[in-house]
Amino acid sequence: MRLRNFVDEEVINEYEKLPNSNNSYDPFPEHSFIASCLRVGLSLSDLKKLSYVDVMKIILSFIDKDESRKTNYRVANQADWDRLANS
Questions:
Q1: Rounded to an integer, what distance in angstroms lies between the CA atom of residue 69 and that of residue 56?
Q2: DSSP 7
Q3: What is the three-class DSSP state of 8?
Q4: Is the pTM of the predicted complex or chain greater than 0.70?
């Protein structure tokens, strides 16, 4: 997050708690922001209505900071796909 003058102190504090938040280089930060908004279910019309701070708070609320609550997902194999296709 390069331009801190567009967010409030609460958003800055939460963003800095994220792992590797300051180490990654993003060549297209504006597009990454829009992609993040679309991933959490915000539409372009939502972005027109909400403030930047509100959007950032919504995105930050979707990030699971507790690693122990994350579930492990099994990758489907061909037999799983075959069962799904035949059901």
A1: 22
A2: S
A3: coil
A4: no
What's the 3-state SS for 16-77? HCCCCCCCCCCCCHHHHHHHHHHHCCCCHHHHHHCCHHHHHHHHHHHCCCCHHHCCCCCCCC
Q: What is the per-residue pLDDT across 13-70, written as a single tens digit (0 to 9) for each? A: 777 777 665 556 677 888 888 998 998 999 999 999 999 889 988 888 887 655 555 5
Tokens of residue 54, six digits = 């509100």
Place of tokens 């099994």: 74
Q: Let me know: does 53 contact 39? Beta carbons within 8 Å.
A: no
Is the CB of residue 84 less than 8 Å from the CB of residue 39? no
Residue 1 confidence class, pLDDT cut points 50, 70, 90 = very low
Q: From the centroid of its chain, how far is CA 40?
A: 6
